[in-house]
Specification:
By secondary structure, this protein is mainly alpha-helical. The protein has helices spanning 2-13, 28-32, 42-48, 54-57, 60-67, 69-89, 93-116, 137-143, 149-154, 170-180, 192-202. Helix 6 packs across helix 7.
Length: 246
C-alpha cells in the first residue's frame, strides 16, 4: 500500500511527464508494463523524495504491511489461494498453482496496467482536453469502474473516481457500502454546477451538459461519456511543472 500510494501520488502530480513513474508519453508498452521492467527515469527518482507520505507513515496498519510485505504476500497471496481449492474442492496442486495463483495474478496485473496505458490513450476527454487521461468504458468494465480516467485526473479527490455509478463503477458502490458500515467517511464528490462549467470550458465536446440534468447510468457497451475508443481531439502536449519542497 505504501509504495503504491507513493507512486500514485507521484503519477498525479507529474502525470504523463518524466516525473511520472508510468509516463504514457513514452509509449503504450512502457506505460503498461515496461516501467516495471526497467529503471525509473532519473527525474522520477529525484521527485519521488518530494512526495509527502507523513500521513501513511503514521498509520500503523499501513506500515505493518510495508515492513512485513514479503511474508504476508507469501501467505495471503500464494499459499492461501492454493491451499483453499485443494482443501475444500479437491483441486490438484498443479491446477491450484497455475489457475488460482499465476492466472489470477497475470489477469489482475494486466487489468490494472490497462488503467495506466489504455486509459491514457484510447477514449474521450469530456472534462479536460488539456490532460492525457481519457474515459474508457472498456477499461472500466475490466477494472470495476477505474476506467473513467479523464474525470479521475480532473477531480482526483472524488471518491467515485468517476461521475457515473453502476453498472460500470462497482468500486464506488463498495465504498458507499463501507461508509454505511462506518468503515469509510467524509466521502467527497463534485456538484453538477462545477461539472457543467468544466465541461463547457475545458471539455472536448463529447459530453453534452444536458446529461447532467438526470442521473447518468451506463447501459450496454456504449455510453454517452465514451461513444468510441477514439478521442475526438489530439493528444495534448504536457509540460512538467516541478514543485519541490521548500
Amino acid at each position: 500500500m505504501y509504495i503504491w500510494c507513493r507512486d500514485h501520488r507521484l503519477h498525479h502530480r507529474y502525470s504523463d511527464t518524466d516525473g511520472d513513474p508510468h509516463n504514457s508519453k513514452r509509449g503504450m508498452f512502457y506505460s503498461h508494463f515496461g516501467w516495471l521492467m526497467t529503471s525509473r527515469h532519473p527525474l522520477c527518482k529525484k521527485l519521488r523524495d518530494t512526495i509527502d507520505m507523513s500521513d501513511l507513515q503514521q498509520d500503523r496498519f499501513v506500515m505493518f504491511q510495508y515492513r512485513h510485505f514479503r511474508p504476508l504476500y507469501f501467505f495471503l497471496g500464494f499459499l492461501l489461494p492454493i491451499w483453499l481449492p485443494m482443501h475444500f474442492f479437491q483441486e490438484t496442486f498443479t491446477n491450484a498453482v497455475f489457475v488460482c495463483f499465476f492466472l489470477r495474478y497475470v489477469y489482475t496485473m494486466h487489468v490494472t496496467a490497462c488503467i495506466n496505458s489504455l486509459a491514457h490513450k484510447f477514449g474521450t476527454r469530456p472534462y479536460d482536453k488539456t490532460i492525457q487521461p481519457v474515459e474508457s468504458w472498456f477499461v472500466s468494465l475490466l477494472s470495476l469502474g477505474e476506467g473513467w480516467h479523464n474525470y479521475h485526473h480532473a477531480y482526483p479527490w472524488d471518491y467515485k473516481a468517476a461521475e457515473i455509478g453502476m453498472p460500470l463503477n462497482s468500486t464506488a458502490s463498495l465504498i458507499r457500502l463501507c461508509a454505511s458500515l462506518g468503515l469509510a467517511y467524509d466521502l467527497k464528490s463534485v456538484d453538477p454546477e462545477t461539472l457543467n462549467k468544466r465541461i463547457i470550458n475545458k471539455g472536448d465536446g463529447t459530453y453534452e451538459v444536458k446529461y447532467l440534468e438526470e442521473h447518468v447510468t451506463a447501459i450496454g457497451p456504449l455510453h454517452p461519456l465514451n461513444p468510441s475508443y477514439r478521442g475526438t481531439c489530439p493528444d495534448p502536449e504536457i509540460k512538467l511543472k516541478v514543485r519541490m519542497k521548500p
